[in-house]
Amino acid sequence: MSSVYSFTGLDASSLFCDQPNVPAFTLDPAAQPETCGDGAFTPTTEVNFFDPGFRFPRNFRVALGTDLRLPGGWVGTVDLLYIQGVNQIYVNDVNLVASGTAAGEGGRVLYGSIDPDDGFATPNRRSYAFGPVIEVGNASGDRTYSATIQLQKHFAGGVEVGAAYAYTDSKDRMSAESDLASFNLGSQNILDGTLDDRRLATSLYSVPHKITMVGAFDLPLLARLSLFYNGFSGSPYTYRVSGDVNADGVTAFGGPQDNDPVYVPGNAADITLADPAQWDSLDRYIQSRPCLQEQRGRLLRRNSCRNPWVSVVNARLSKIFPTTRGQSIELIADLFNVLNLLDGDWGVRRATEGTRILSLVGYDSAHARGIYRFIPRDPNVRDLEATRWRMQLGARYTF
Fold first, then answer.
1. pLDDT tens, 185-227?
2. In this structure, how many other beta carbons lie within 10 angstroms of the beta carbon of residue 225?
3. CA angle 308, 314, 319 (to 5 degrees)
């Protein structure tokens, strides 16, 4: 929401020109160019504003939970949670006018025109004196169901064990990830539906399945070992187009914010490729990704693909040294991703190399669809930063 106070339309303007019409560069603040070389464009400004009826986010929330004493000294816990969005933040560019649909791409709504030769998009704006005019308003319908079950027990000798499983089904219209409205129009908020009415789809922050296991054991000489396992569903993502295939002009600070999902072709006749020889490679890639294979012949749903399952094992070893008058010093060693320390091929977190798999290079007016170039992506790339094991040393004085 901070962008409402930053993008007033009075502080800055932008001028976008393509070669050969890029004006000469000048350092003189008073002589900055106001048109491209052919005089076809004038500077535009971005304006962000609050809907007069805007309300801060509100949720309706119901939570139920209970602890149960079970036979054998076990304690069971059940938690149920339901959240319904009443007022959620929703952003929209009100300076756009829908101009038709791309019948050859599952009826993708178009907000402008696309140059058949190079794929350059020109948004259809209500006023060309402005660029995006982004309204920060509200929408409703976001919802989450969550259920958690847990078992834990304390044994003699300082042994403690616990295990939990959580299931969550979370859907929203927009997964806000920035305080700038222009970023929330693009980036991870792939357009699923229309700008005015986005469909409910899997939230960017959705974690459908999560398993947690804990074990703690007393060792000789006042030492204690704790082991923690976390396993959870990988992050969701959407394969998208590199380029503005719906001509809505979505950018942020002049840079691309590709927010259009790919149309998944059913066969070679269902897509126009700049190089038809790429079809075999594209078809094999679609077959290798279940989320693509299951959605052939339509626009890909937002966040319908998911990275692989993540497993992380952490450990803590601590030792207490008594001092005087019941006081003590505890030395602590925390080890994160133990499996990767034991073997470089264990505890590896993997993710897709990138989500832009089609690049828009033109427009096929006869078939009402874009002309594309396939960008091969590796769906199984090691995330080095998330995989790397780490150690943390600490000390605590108790008095």
1. 887 689 999 999 999 999 999 999 999 999 999 999 889 999 9
2. 13
3. 180
Residue 97 and residue 94: Cα distance in Å, rounded? 8
- How many Cα atoms within 13 Å fall on the side-chain side of residue 283? 12
- The reported pTM is 0.89
DSSP 342: H
- Kindly calculate the radius of gyration of the chain based on its CA atoms and give it in whole angstroms: 27
Give the tens place of pLDDT for each residue, 98-142.
999 999 999 999 999 999 999 999 999 999 888 899 999 999 999
From the CB of residue 131, how many other CB atoms can be counted at a distance below 10 Å? 25
Half-sphere exposure of 61 (CA within 13 A, CB side): 7
Question: What DSSP assignment string belongs to 230-272?
Answer: EEEPPPEE--EEES-TT----EETTEE----BPEE-SSGGGSE
Q: Residue 211's CB: how many other CB atoms inside 10 A?
A: 14
